[in-house]
Amino acid sequence: MQVSPRAAIIGVTGFVGRGLPSLLAEKGMATTGVSRAGSGQLPGVDQWQAPDRLNLAGHHAVINLAGEPIDQRWTAQTRIRFHASRVGLTQRVVQAISDLSPAERPKVLVNASAVGFYGDRHDEILTETAQRGDGYLADLCAEWEEAALAAESLGVRVVRLRIGIVLGKEGSAFKKLLFVFKLGIGGRLGSGKQWMPWIHVADLRGAIVHAVFSESLHGPINGAAPNPERNADFNRKLAAALHRPAIFPAPGFALRLVIGEFGGALLAGQRALPKALERDGFQFHFPTLESALKDLL
Ligand SMILES: NC(=O)c1ccc[n+]([C@@H]2O[C@H](COP(=O)([O-])OP(=O)(O)OC[C@H]3O[C@@H](n4cnc5c(N)ncnc54)[C@H](OP(=O)(O)O)[C@@H]3O)[C@@H](O)[C@H]2O)c1
Q: What is the pLDDT of residues 254-263, one digit of tens each?
């Protein structure tokens, strides 16, 4: 009997992860779900593990999407969780790979990172060769990516996916945006000039599956649509799609006051372009914000 190749997905219960097992199954790949709950019910997942008892033997691919949600107040306690669930957990994944003999090791690690890697870059066009930026999120992402990169010396192809703002019906960012816009109180954040590197969740999942199977893809990859929008334009298009006004701007100082440092992160812009994915032949189903909103609303 032939055994299907298998992927382990850490963070499989999350917004992005939960749609992946069925996509992998379409390509003949089985999924081991990795969750702190230890087991669960999810279409396409036939085995479960807990992240503190990882056994990656027999897995062709590892997809690591775990991370304490960042869209909450940044306190000393939440920062510990942000770090442990990204850097700490990624180090644990690499340790689990290194515990295996070279023949047993997975061939590819697709590890989440974020466009926060670039910090606040105004109008600069950011392809994957751009330098890292400054600030808490840039530091966190750089450490997260460094932890993943350690798997390269173990003979693993490592893809570091710098994810933008993921748009999907189940996503917390999109749900919050819809809530305020439906009330008619949405509007630009700060100056509204900052670039928002958004991506439709279906394209992000497609890019992850592409990264698993495309052996020519490795290194940093921007997980963002080819047409980022300035915050004011993003909000204007969302308001128009919802037939609501976008007239109430949220000044930067108020955002920082109400949601603390995370408010500052919302004011930072990254004009990130998915050059590496496009060069590797990946096709976006939702390249423009209009096409993504039409699908989602
Ligand atoms: N969604 C976005 O807009 C966006 C943007 C940029 C980057 N990203 C990154 O992409 C990845 C996937 O995003 P997502 O929206 O799918 O994430 P998510 O739904 O918020 O969380 C993914 C999974 O992370 C695990 N997790 C949460 N808190 C944890 C903790 N304290 N310790 C260990 N594990 C924890 C949970 O798995 P269990 O409870 O099953 O263990 C959860 O299902 C994340 O790393 C995120 O930072 C997302």
A: 666 666 777 7
